[in-house]
Amino acid sequence: MKNQLLQELSVLHEKVAAIKVYDRENASLLGKYTQEFEALLTRLLTFNTESFKSIVADYHKNTTGEAYTSATDLHDDTDNSNGFYASVANLNNNINDSIEIVNGL
Hints:
mainly alpha; 4 helices
């Protein structure tokens, strides 16, 4: 199970890292990848609850939900793009942290 989780996290990391530009398509992809990570979080907690409690807490503390929706208002580029890029960075950081924890187990 460890190898499968590590592989899935790595694939998701590559997908998130490929998001470079703020537009409607990437906002939609971010929402999709966020859902994928949340599903992985559930599996990670099942795999080793104590090791992933901090990831879950940090992830939920930094997630507002609005930045991850595919219905982001692209007319307000400053506010939305800042939130979009912050959301991509937060997701990427949580994936990286999860990969490190899985590698350490």
